[in-house]
Structures are given as structure tokens and as C-alpha cells.
Automatic annotation (TrEMBL):
Pfam families: HTH_1, LysR_substrate. This is LysR family transcriptional regulator. Residues 1-58 form the HTH lysR-type domain. Keywords: DNA-binding, Transcription, Transcription regulation. Belongs to the LysR transcriptional regulatory family. It comes from Mammaliicoccus sciuri. The lineage of its organism: Bacteria, Bacillati, Bacillota, Bacilli, Bacillales. InterPro entries: HTH-type_LysR_regulators, LysR_HTH_N, LysR_subst-bd, WH-like_DNA-bd_sf, WH_DNA-bd_sf. GO terms for molecular function: DNA binding; DNA-binding transcription factor activity. GO terms for cellular component: cytosol. PROSITE patterns: HTH_LYSR.
């Protein structure tokens, strides 16, 4: 499975048909069709189903597309870091949603002033998604919300904590509350984070049983959950400060128990960092040390 063929495959995925992809790639349609057919034969799977003029990915095709993007990204990043003698390249960072990532932004700003050919590629996700990409070598660093098992990673704390509570609406049953008690959320419709360990932590902190939580939905990114809250699907159990509630129908109410989580920056143990990634890490450590 060559990188060139994976790029052809992704072009077909993006364009939706062979002729448009062939034109984009500046190759003939029969050549591209042959390459895709050879790829299917190599993998012994069908990657596309035809729907009229367009091609639709099979389940195997969707899986390959997700992995192919990661593979191509890793190849391009590695090639860039090896072949260029100047300090330039990309630093890839996966970040949990948090209002406490300012040190990350500061480090990026300072490093860009000194080395303006370094580019930062970031994406938002939960801890499981971020750690998976670190393990696969697709990203350099992850900014994750505790609790998480970090046994296979090096890490530094961002010296900040986020507060847990409930995101609700101003006209909900909680409208007159300034703090949320454990009893107040029992059997209420809740939207919770998909991150492993969050539910267990909340149950432990609030001294509740699993059966006492009425979970109606789970979220990966809080913005999507906030829309469900606005539509009265349920109340989102989340960190404060992520979604802007000013002049909106939304209201964040922290727990009485003062439940907090720290943020950490993690990277793979014993994995050599590229020069741009190491420079970023050094700059971030300097900023964190200056704040102590």
C-alpha cells in the first residue's frame, strides 16, 4: 500500500467520483480506476459502492479513509522535519476543550515570533482520541483533562484547574440555584462527557450511585452539548468557562462540593521529538515556570 495510492484514494473520497479526482490529480480516469481496483484487490475488500454518478464509501472504505489521512499526515510531517535544515515544520497538538489552555497559546505566540516558519496544527477531542493519535505518532502533544492514566507518557501540569458543574438554561428548574448539590441532579436528564473516568470521578465526588444518574446523551465536544441544552434535551455535566454564557439562554452552575480537574500536557515516553516540537516544549516549560 503505497503513499501515492493512498493519496489517490483520498482524492476520490474527497471528490466523490473517479473522473473529478483524476482531473484533480492530473492523471487519466482509467489509470485512477485501475489504482483503486488494485488497492481493493490488495486489501481484499470493497472500498466504494456506486450511487448514480457518485461513489459512496463502504464501512471498510470509511475506516481506510480515516487511517489514510493519519498515515499521509505522519509521512509528510516526518519528511518535512528530516529534509529541511532551517527550523521549520509543523507541531501537532490535540487539545481538550478548556478555558485553561492560555499557556499553550502563549508558547505558540512566542515561538512563532522567533521561528515564523513553524506551523501549529491543532484539533479538539477527548482524552481517548488524543492519546490514540499520540500512540499512532500522528500528533506530538496532547492537552488532556484529568483524570487519565498517564503511565506510558511524559507530562507536565498547566498549573491550572477547571471547575465541574452543570450547564443549564436560565429558565430551567435550576434557575435560582448558585450551587448544585448532589441530590439536585438525581434522576434529572443529564448529558455527560464520553471521556472514560469522568462519570466515575463525578459519582465518587458526589457520593452517588450509577443508577441515580439519568444519562440521556453523551458528548465529545461541549459546543454540541450546549445546543442540546438550549433545546432542553437535558443538563450538561461539564467544566465551566468553555461555552460562553454571557447574553445567552445558558447558565453554568458549579457543584457545592467544588469538584475540579487539572490539565496536563502529555507526550509519548522515549519518543524523540522533532526540533520544532522540542522548541515548543521548552518554551511552554519556561512560561509555566515564570508563572510559579
Amino acid at each position: 500500500m503505497e503513499n501515492r495510492v493512498l493519496r489517490y484514494f483520498l482524492a476520490v473520497v474527497a471528490e466523490g467520483n473517479i473522473s473529478a479526482a483524476a482531473k484533480l490529480l492530473h492523471i487519466t480516469q482509467p489509470t485512477l480506476s485501475r489504482q483503486i481496483k488494485d488497492l481493493e484487490e490488495e486489501l481484499s475488500v470493497k472500498l466504494f459502492n456506486r450511487k448514480g454518478k457518485y461513489l459512496e464509501l463502504t464501512s471498510e472504505g470509511r475506516y481506510l479513509a480515516s487511517k489514510a489521512r493519519d498515515i499521509i499526515d505522519l509521512v509528510d510531517k516526518t519528511t518535512s522535519n528530516i529534509t529541511h535544515k532551517e527550523i521549520f515544520g509543523e507541531v501537532h497538538i490535540g487539545m481538550a476543550e478548556s478555558s485553561s489552555i492560555k499557556p499553550i497559546a502563549k508558547a505558540i505566540k512566542v515561538l512563532r515570533k522567533e521561528h515564523n516558519q513553524i506551523i501549529f496544527d491543532t484539533f479538539s477531542g477527548n482524552a481517548e482520541q488524543i492519546l490514540e493519535k499520540i500512540n499512532d505518532g500522528v500528533i506530538d502533544f496532547g492537552v488532556i483533562i484529568e483524570p487519565i492514566n498517564k503511565i506510558n507518557y511524559d507530562s507536565i501540569s498547566l498549573n491550572r484547574t477547571d471547575v465541574w458543574g452543570i450547564l443549564t438554561t436560565h429558565d430551567s428548574e435550576f434557575k435560582d440555584m448558585d450551587k448544585m448539590s448532589a441530590e439536585s441532579i438525581i434522576n434529572k436528564p443529564l448529558i455527560i462527557s464520553r471521556q472514560q473516568g469522568v462519570k466515575k470521578m463525578i459519582l465518587n465526588e458526589l457520593d452517588l450511585e450509577d443508577a441515580q444518574l439519568n444519562i440521556v446523551a453523551k458528548y465529545n465536544l461541549l459546543y454540541n452539548a450546549s445546543i442540546m441544552v438550549e433545546e432542553c434535551v437535558g443538563h450538561a455535566l461539564c467544566l465551566g468557562g468553555i461555552v460562553n454564557t454571557y447574553n445567552t439562554s445558558l447558565k453554568f452552575i458549579p457543584f457545592q462540593q467544588d469538584i475540579t480537574s487539572k490539565l496536563s500536557v502529555v507526550w509519548k515516553k522515549e519518543k524523540p521529538l522533532s526540533v520544532p516540537a522540542q522548541l515548543f516544549l521548552n518554551q511552554l516549560k519556561d512560561i509555566l515556570n515564570s508563572e510559579k
